[in-house]
Amino acid sequence: MKTEVISIGTELLMGYVVDTNSSTIAKELLGMGMGIYYRQIVGDNPKRLRDSIELATKRSDIIILSGGLGPTKDDITKEVVAEFVGDEIILDPKQLDKITGYYSDKYDTLPDNMYRQAHTLKNGTTFFNEVGLACGTAYERKREGMDSQYFILLPGPPSEMTHMLKHYLKPYLMEHVQNNGVIESLYMNLYGLGESRVAELLDDLIENQTNPTVAIYAKPRQVTVRLTANAPDSKTALSLNKALAKKVLDLVGPYFIGYGEDQTIEAFVVEQLKERQQTLSVIEGFTGGEVMGSLTKISGVSSVFSGGLIAYTNNSNHKVLDLSIETVNEQKVKELAEKSLEKFNTNSALSVMGNVDYNENQNLASGTLLIAYAEKGKETQMKDYPLTERPLEVLRVIAKNEAFAFMNQCLKQSI
Fold first, then answer.
1. Fold classification of 3-176 (topology level)
2. Cα–Cα distance between 99 and 117 in angstroms, integer?
3. Number of Cβ atoms within 10 Å of the Cβ of 113
4. Confidence class for position 315, pLDDT limits 50, 70, 90
5. Where does the signal sequence lie (predicted)?
């Protein structure tokens, strides 16, 4: 079935707010094997919204509208959809109870506009908003001689939309649309191979795909392979995906960095450290905290990450590490990693420094990245990596990724 997303809000059209909802919806539905065919952005105008809905109904089977469910006069989505499908607006009692409870300390009598957030379609299915005040709605419209058409109304605030999408919309679609089994995806992440090379290595699997299907999409220096199986139940789908995953690993195994839609190279390194019961400290300069910052976003990282230092000046190096670095070179970067083992009492350490020059406008940088990985009782490993001219913030992300990729390589070699 073809799916379309309509994002509603004048602030989206004007560029004051970035439309992240449609990309979140697309990713979540893709994991169910449902692709988004079209996207629209429309302002808070009844006629233009109706025109957008009418266009969507001519080409799509599932129409997801995000935004315009709030209490103000320009929150018009429910009213426009109700008029379009010929249904009646009613109040959802459960959502209304939450609204009145929320405002009980602020108003003796609830203002009329606040009731709008509890509006729903009489013959639809209400999605209770557990993290906000405006409920969502799903409406099924029967079509003679055709499959039903579905109108899904979700709130605009991303946190509310994402919660409702995962906890209400996806189960609704599984029940009403995917009633002939389940469609589930398994995500495999590769680091150090380009998208074209992955496609070349997996060519036979892609050319002969049936069930599961194979899809490839790229991130910076990382490629995700998505396997999607259609099966009577989740257990069978997982079994099908795992069987194909084994064939993929046979072809690209050395570059594999774990399963999961949001897997990163740093998370994969942390998993390995946990398995080995190793602790890590970090000294970084050029990256300005990018390396340590990425570690702190990983759940449970405190069991392996002991701390570190942003060694931006000679003074900080001397005071904390008893080490003076007037110029950055391989020997000094190695010494930083080895000193880190001692000062932070860890059994592994990563140092990331750079010799970087800026262009005349100071908006682009280039140079050489120096990475050292030290482990107690073993020889310290060193790598140089060329940094071609790019914005500083881009180079820092690249440097972070390359540092963890090098550490991953060192860990594999030390098994």
1. Molybdenum Cofactor Biosythetic Enzyme; Chain A (3.40.980)
2. 8
3. 12
4. low
5. none
* SS3 label, residue 377: coil
Instruction: Note the pTM of the prediction, 2 decimals.
Output: 0.69
Q: Point out which residues pair with 184 in neighbouring strands.
A: 229
155, two tokens: 């709130």
Give the pLDDT score at 328. Answer: 78
Distances in Å between the Cα of 153 and the Cα atoms of 39, 124, 161, 173 are 15, 10, 10, 13
Q: For residue 223, what are the CA distances in angstroms to 27, 226, 298, 316? A: 16, 10, 20, 38
Q: Give 146-164 pLDDT, tens digit per residue.
A: 889 999 999 999 999 999 9
φ, ψ of residue 208 in degrees (nearest 5)? -105, 20
Strands 36-42 and 3-8: parallel
Distance, in Å, from the CA atom of 49 to the CA atom of 74, rounded to the nearest integer, reads 11
Class of domain 265-413: alpha beta
- Would you call 74 helix, strand, or coil by DSSP? coil
**Separation of alpha carbons 343 and 79, rounded Å:** 64
Q: What pLDDT band is residue 316 in, cutting at 50, 70 and 90?
A: low
Strand partners, 368: 355, 386
> What dotted CATH number matches 182-259?
3.30.70.2860
What are the extents of the domains in the chain?
A: 3-176, 182-259, 265-413
Q: What is the pLDDT of residues 187-225, one digit of tens each?
A: 999 998 899 999 999 999 999 888 898 989 887 779 999
Asked if residues 69 and 134 have their Cβ atoms less than 8 Å apart, the reply is: yes
Please tell me whether residue 225 adopts helix, strand or coil conformation. strand
One-letter amino acid identity for 247?
K
Q: Where are the alpha helices (DSSP H) in 183-313?
A: 195-201, 203-207, 234-252, 265-276, 290-296
